[in-house]
# Entry
Amino acid sequence: MPPMLDPGSHPGATSPERIRNFCIIAHIDHGKSTLADRMLQLTEVVDARQMRAQYLDRMDIERERGITIKSQAVRLPWAVREGERAGEPFVLNMIDTPGHVDFTYEVSRSLAACEGAVLLVDAAQGIEAQTLANLYLALENDLHVIPVLNKIDLPAAQPEKYAEELAHLIGCEPSDCLRVSGKTGEGVAHLLDEIVRQFKPPVGDASAPTRAMIFDSVYDVYRGVVTYIRVIDGRLDPREKIKMMSTGAVHELLEIGVISPEPIKSTGGLGVGEVGYLMTGVKDVRQSRVGDTVTINGKPATEALGGYKDPKPMVYSGLYPIDGSDYPNLRDALDKLKLNDAALNYEPETSTALGFGFRCGFLGLLHLEIIRERLEREFGLDLISTAPNVVYRVDLEDGTEHIVTNPSEYPAGKIGQVYEPTVRATVLTPNDYVGAVMELCQGRRGQLLGMDYLSADRVELRYTLPLAEIIYDFFDQLKSRTKGYASLDYEPSGEQESDLVKVDILLHGEAVDAFSAIVHKDKAYNYGVTIAAKLRGLIPRQQFEVPIQAAIGSRVIARETIRAIRKDVLAKCYGGDITRKRKLIEKQKEGKKRMKMVGRVEVPQEAFIAALSTSDGTDGKAPAKK
Ligand SMILES: Nc1nc2c(ncn2[C@@H]2O[C@H](COP(=O)(O)OP(=O)(O)OP(=O)(O)O)[C@@H](O)[C@H]2O)c(=O)[nH]1
# Structure
């Protein structure tokens, strides 16, 4: 359906005074996608027949898990309904932001493309950790914030109470907090009017050399890379030669347009303040990176817009096909995913235990889990992933520095200092659980930075924590110790020197690389004992005694033993039935194929899988939701 009303009638000809660029920020599950759906309906860019829940979350994985991974920008024509400007037409560009900490950089770029943010808070839940984190990000980007309480249709909603809290937080009056229901649509038209009234129109210099900021970049199998941009200065017209300022790469602009909610080509290009997409035929998102500045090759801008950052992996894990012959398929699948994900890194590696695979770098655990799931689901691969680890910096006494992304590559020389990455975590919890949260954070080597009461019963705790301590089960622990009431948000905050050691697990004297781990000195013993005990239960007895040892360097810290057995499959086969004997021998051979040799020890592949998948007690998985 064509948009009913489009001021200036075409993209490219809309005057900046008629444009409002905004985003919705919220804690997960506070109803951002549902509200966006109502806005699509009210502005009639999607009619009731086409409407499906969470229209903008296109990827299947997104819909199933209810999380938004890739941001989108939608152009919404809106005629003001009430007040002084009633009847005046505007263009609202709604920029959807991903909500998870792994994608904070993408959130910050989406915010930079807006003048205003709608801060959405569930009226039955109140402020949560991500409400705060997103609010701070919005304020850092100088955005005007409209506080909105959502889900007022719920019987448990307490809009009065949370309006007070919200007003206190952002320094406004409780009556300034709007009230809506994304479910019933109540209050949404008024919110759209307020977006026009309160947010500023974009400003930019129409005659200056063109500068447009990339805030998202998505690979599409049919169209190649689709890049989402906001024009800051000048304009972009079809068929122009554009230049990416961070790399200097020049591409021809094959198509430019807006999304409303499907792509609509713009023959008039895009002018100051407009938000839309462009396509150049490039096949790889790394050539069109989030945060980069697009300019015109013939008349380039001299200075790029600020804020460009290379995505840096924070968490590493080895991915191995369970069936070794899938290795080439895994490589092809990773190559394909990389087209859409500038933050995914991988390098081939070999493990004595697991064979050929890849060491992959991710933004965080959720990112890891999403990639793993896509590999399994979209490419039909069965994978095993090693326990995730962070990146360590090791200074040796001989003055050399090593960046360690794989524990089995820990340098052998005399270690000087070891540094590990840290995060600044914000935990929001009801008063009653402060003790439990503090105990958990201290157990994870956290340092309390500060504590504030947001209201009589809600406390904000700020900690510095080693990233390695929160990537496993921290979130699950936090939830279980606070009966689900606490929420968590964190951001990288540099590194710290720590007392870390590498623990090796040896089978019959041979180190098994897949189980090497870098852990804090105080936790090394525990790690060694747990893994050794687990392996003893998983590895069948051999014809000789097999010691399982955990060691730091040459010092053994834990030991288990698998006793010897003489496995004579023919022992029970009395009499002379030769065919039966043959069958048994054949069967034993089959079994041997699935065994891996570690030194002289035969280990069934399943033992590695079982030990790895539970080695951290969390199945190596991130919490799907925060
Ligand atoms: N009763 C009621 N339920 C709502 C309302 N808005 C959203 N919900 C429900 O709240 C849940 C979360 O809503 P979503 O729109 O998926 O939340 P979201 O913030 O987009 O979630 P993420 O994409 O995971 O960040 C869903 O089950 C919605 O049906 C509302 O106004 N009233």
In short: DSSP finds 14 helices and 32 strands in the chain. Residues 40 and 46 are 6 Å apart (CA to CA). Confidence is low (pLDDT under 50) at residues 1-8, 65-71, 614-626. The first helix runs from residue 32 to 42.
